[in-house]
Amino acid sequence: MTAGSSSSSKPVKLYGWAVSPFVARALLSLEEAGVDYEHVPMNPDAGDHRRPEHLAMNPFGQVPVLEDGDLTLFESRAIARHVLRKHKPELLGVGELERSAAVDVWLEVEAHQFHPPTLAIVRECIAAPLRGRARDQVVVDENVGKLRAVLEVYEARLGSHRYLAGDNVSIADLNHFTLMHYFMSTEYGPALVGPLPRVKAWWEELAARPAARKVAAFMPLDFGADKKEK
Amino acid sequence: MAPVTVFGSAVFANAARVLVCLEEVGIEYEVVEVDYMAKEHKGPEHLSRNPFGQIPALQDGDVMLFESRAISKYVLRKYGKASNVDLLREDSAEEAALVDVWTEVEAHHYFPAIAPIVYECVVFPARLGMQPNQKVVDESLEKLGKVLEIYEARLSKSKYLAGDFFSFADLTHFPYTYYFMKTTHASLLDKFPHVKAWWEDLMSRPSTKKHGAGMFLEP
Asked: Which of B59, B67, B148 is the best mutation test for A, with the most CBs of A within 10 A?
């Protein structure tokens, strides 16, 4: 398997504002991989993501973007897969059909079951107030209900498996970290996770990983609002 | 040895995603109906296959999987080589990464724009006798138009989404686009000639022709 042999001459660069749980997801994969990389910060308020130079890298005008040698990638989950496939393939289950299938299943679960309601709660409870908008409690309540049902499935899963995809940690677990970090700082985090002992233990272990602790420092719970005042 | 079993027939777009992958790798499989209108997907038997109570699920020996994109990757990875079919390109870090990028684009940009049109214009009328919510349709058409502009630019530079090779990134667009093209909004693709040509190429494949025939919901 080729491993991007041209990349040794150019450093790996990750573009984007680290407070974004998407950018931070990509940063987490780089930290877990233990590779040298350069984080190129961007300013959303200055519209950095809409400039032609950025659109040339990501036509959807979003962050993060990863440059690895001649490869330019976007979509944080694709970036994380690439980085870990290259440097920590065991986290994807490469070469093991059943493990890689379980990893892929729980990666999709993160993206399609966990992510939408959790993002909605984080948007209403953290992002909206920072932008001077009142929280929409109807939206929060609806999504808390959905997420509660999702986390009950996780509790059952973690009852029969040490981690989501099996006996060993995988990218499926890691991909939850950055949005969970914000979610757990709202009142709904402890309220939903507290009564689920296996989910709680799984979360605490995830958050205790050295890479997670490092990336958590890039994600202040006020999205860096205090820095903007200075 | 029991053949691979898919729970949920091609009428369900997410099941069709898996079924076309099975056709591409050319293995034997059987399809077990799940009675959606009777809420069979929320019953205990199906919940034991998919704890989220959704369609499809796939059983291959002792392996039980759900989430159509994950199932599809498993099928392509396990059975592709023997049939000389490589739609994931996992032997090349660069190619696999580009397949992943455009697979994520389908999931997080294309699908959210096109699916509401399919639900409003095809699924809800056919299943529930409802009329389309025109506001939802119009908002989604606008979003989809912007997404298709990006696809047009991409497909003007490379034959397929991940590069000059056909991959799962292209195939994963089949089911929802198929239903979309049955609606009166199909003409949207006429504005994007490279997208239209790419779609026609996708529909020329035996796999999509076969399972399109099973996607019988009409607008």
From this structure: B67
Kindly tell me if the per-residue pLDDT of A47 is higher than 90: yes
Residue A157 touches chain B, beta carbons under 8 Å: yes
Could you report the per-residue pLDDT of B21-36, keeping only the tens digit for each?
999 999 999 999 999 9
Structure tokens at B107: 């999931």
Question: CA B74, B79, B82 angle in degrees (round to 5)?
Answer: 155
Q: Determine the topology of domain B93-211 in CATH.
A: Glutathione S-transferase Yfyf (Class Pi); Chain A, domain 2 (1.20.1050)
Tell me how crowded residue A48 is: count the other CB atoms within 10 A of its CB: 18
Give mean pLDDT, residues A202-215: 98
Pick the CATH number of B4-83 from 3.10.450.50, 3.40.250.10, 3.40.30.10, 3.40.50.300: 3.40.30.10
Beta carbon pairs, A and B, within 8 Å = 87
Q: Which CATH number fits domain A12-90: 3.30.1360.40, 3.40.50.2020, 1.25.40.10, 3.40.30.10?
A: 3.40.30.10
Domains of chain B by residue range: 4-83, 93-211
Q: Give B116-131 pLDDT, tens digit per residue.
A: 999 999 999 999 999 9
Token duo for residue B148: 């298709």
B-facing residues of A in 82-101 (CB < 8 A) are 82, 85-86, 94, 97-98, 100-101
pLDDT at position A6 over 60:
no
Rounded to two decimals, the pTM is: 0.95
DSSP 3-state assignment of B180? helix
Mutate to test the interface with B, among A7, A73, A105 (most CBs of B within 10 A): A105
- ipTM above threshold 0.95: yes
Q: Give the pLDDT confidence score for residue B1 in this predicted structure.
A: 59
pLDDT (0 to 100) of residue B87: 98
The Cα-based distances of B60 to B71, B125, B167 in angstroms read 10, 34, 23
Supply the mean pLDDT for chain A.
93
Q: Which residues of chain B have pLDDT under 50?
A: none
Query: Residue B50 is encoded by which pair of tokens?
Result: 């998919």
pLDDT category at A9 given cuts 50, 70, 90 is: low
Q: Is B136 helix (H, G, I), strand (E, B) or coil?
A: helix
A14 CB within 8 Å of a chain B CB: no
B94 to A78: CB separation less than 8 angstroms, yes or no: no
Which residues of chain A make contact with B93, given a CB cutoff of 8 A? Answer: 1-4, 82, 85-86
Whole-angstrom distance between the N-terminal and C-terminal Cα of chain A? 49
